Amino acid sequence: MLLSVENLTVRIGKVEPLSGLSFTLDRGEILGLVGESGSGKSLTAMAVTGLLPLIGGRISAGSVVFDGTDLAALPEARLRPYRGKRIALVTQNPMTALDPVQRVGDQVDIMARLHLGMDAKAARARTVDLLNRLRIPESRTVCDAYPHQLSGGMKQRIVIAMALAAEPDLIVADEPTTALDVTVQAQIIHILGELVRERGLALMLITHDMGVVAQVCDRVAVLYAGRLAETREAGPLFARPRHPYTRALIDCIPREGMAPGSLTGIPGLVPSVAQYPAGCRFHPRCLHADAACQQVPEARPQADGGSVSCHHPMEADHG
Amino acid sequence: MAEPLIRAEALEKRFQTGGGLLKKPRAMLAVRGVSLSVERGEVAGVVGESGCGKSTLARLILRLIEPTSGRIHFDGQDLTALSNTDLRRQRRRMAMVFQDPYSSLDPRFTVAEVLAEPFRVQREAPPAGRIAALLDQVGLSAKMADSFPHQLSGGQRQRVGIARALAQAPDFIVLDEPTASLDVSIQAQIIALLSELRQRLGLTYLFISHDLGLVRYFCDRVVVMYLGAVVEVLPRADAAPRHPYTRTLMDSTFAPDPRQRKVLRALEGEIPSAFDLPKGCAFAVRCPRASDACRAARPVLEGGEHPVACFHPF
Fold first, then answer.
1. What domains, with CATH codes, occur in chain A?
2. What pLDDT band is residue A183 in, cutting at 50, 70 and 90?
């Protein structure tokens, strides 16, 4: 297993926004990390990439074992060989991920020069090759452009090229297509999927859109208010969601032939960290909640793999 | 057939940018000859990607910006011919909900002040109990009247935006991407609220979105725009698309079902610049069905019930 996260718990000051997350991800696999804003998806990404100190957070319990090494136990200096080289991050907003005053070709080149020790010429050749692979037309000309001269979809492809340049084993992509138009989103998702299959990359794809998850992910981890609600393979998860929250998220996406009025959303809001309810954190918004839900549910292993944390998991077939 | 509530004829909007002492200004047509009608009680959808002119069209229809040419009829009256005073009187009957509930509410106004402003514009005071009734209509508690926007969540802010649109009891509301900056769970809540309000208050909507899946769920009829022009009008939300661009949009919309995965095709080419439109069909560079004819001339929108602007429609 390339990445194995066990009981990951994160603290920022006095609060504990993430509690006891466990999931795995192997080479050639896409794991979808899904949930509403405030579920802790981006925090999970920061924990895996060792970026928590940036926001004053730390891993207070659990482990993040990457290729046999527990990153959670490493000091900052020893994390550096992993970040950018073996684990790359693609962020949501390509406008802020790129340096506005540097040509985009140079920004991709630097990754190979820094992490693979290539000289300028070899690095540029690699950059051009990468941009071609990402189907950027006139890649040599594009290398000389500044970010503001490129469209949003093009910029996001440059950010992906930067992530790929050092030949990482794992890419963590945090809402990589949320800021993009739908046709461009489809392209980027397609490209990411291809890269995973061709290069045996592992991809952790963070999104709030169950449509995107269904399109491309092999396995899914559903996060709610800092805890894992359900984690299973995509096929069974969508066919028979067992956690009511998973079901509710799926039902938020309009589908062909849906009856008018059947799209209702999830009542209420994700609670803020300071106001996490006791017991199952979803119970105030859950239609199936009863007295038992005052207790924290345990993660129950499922016959078809994965686990569900719910006192009243759903049985019925979906759609 | 009764006169539609909204009838826009050959609307055009030209924007100029740049220009200076030595530099010639550049002009672009954000909206190119768009005609459309909205029947009473219907939800008409306008779908397209960023830069297709859908928000400009929304503003033109309410005459928030002046069209370069073309006419807009509202309930039989030509809005483009009205004086400012008469236009303001008509404005009570129409409203708009904006995309970004963060920037469309004044941060220094309380919710009550936000909701009182449409009355102030009409130089009157809100009737007693109206603010509380408006909040109730959009599912917010009357206690929120004294809150400031920063104390509300995104979904709550958008509910305030909807309440503000309802303030003067309009007939017609333009919804400009009202859910684009919200989580999918909140988006579904807002769509459910809008459906309920339409039925209860007999409203007519023009719903603008980039999400064809959502538009097909919510709207009775769908206008598809690409680079400033209408390329297709779906007479019913479930009609099979005829234009290759609408097909592309459909293929880019993912169902929450891994058994319905889309086979994605790499789209060739980039979207042309609106400053430099090609001579032929604007979609030709990206279109799998494009022929020489498509690059030579621009197809016009035609075809009765289900019009499409394409030389090779499905």
1. 3-80+213-308 (3.40.50.300)
2. confident
Q: Kindly list the residues from chain B whose CB atom is less than 8 angstroms away from the CB atom of residue A252.
A: 184-185, 187-188
Tell whether B295 is covered by a domain: yes
B153 touches A at CB < 8 Å: yes
Query: Residue B252 and residue A183: Cβ atoms within 8 Å?
Result: yes
Rg (CA), chain B: 21
Asked if the C-beta of A298 comes within 8 angstroms of chain B's C-beta atoms, the answer is no
Question: What is the number of other CB atoms lying within 10 angstroms of the CB of residue B159?
Answer: 25
Within 10 angstroms of residue A148's Cβ, the number of other Cβ atoms is: 10
Buried b (16+ CB within 10 A) or exposed e, B185-205: bbbbbbbbbbbebbeeeebbb
- Tell me phi and psi for residue B67, to 5 degrees: -70, 150
Please give, rounded to a whole number of angstroms, the shortest distance from the CA of A210 to a CA of chain B: 5
Query: Taking CB atoms and an 8 Å limit, are B255 and A319 in contact across chains?
Result: no
Q: How far is CA B121 from CA A252, A285, B77, B83, B168, in A?
A: 37, 40, 22, 16, 11
Contact A156, A137 (CB under 8 A): no
CB contact under 8 A, B213 and A135: no
Q: List the single residue in B183, B217, B257 with the smallest CB-CB distance to A214.
A: B257
Q: What is the count of structural domains for chain B? A: 1
The CA distance from A177 to A155, in Å, is 11
Pairwise CB contact (< 8 Å): A319 & B257? yes
Q: What is the ipTM of this complex?
A: 0.84
- Under an 8 A CB cutoff, do B256 and A214 touch? yes
- What does pLDDT average to in each consecutive run of 10 residues of chain B (314 residues)? 88 85 82 94 93 91 94 94 90 91 90 94 90 95 94 93 96 94 89 95 95 93 95 93 94 90 72 82 90 93 93 94
Which domain, by its residues, includes B257? Answer: 247-314
Pick from B184, B248, B261: CB nearest A215: B261
Q: What is the pLDDT of residue B113?
A: 95
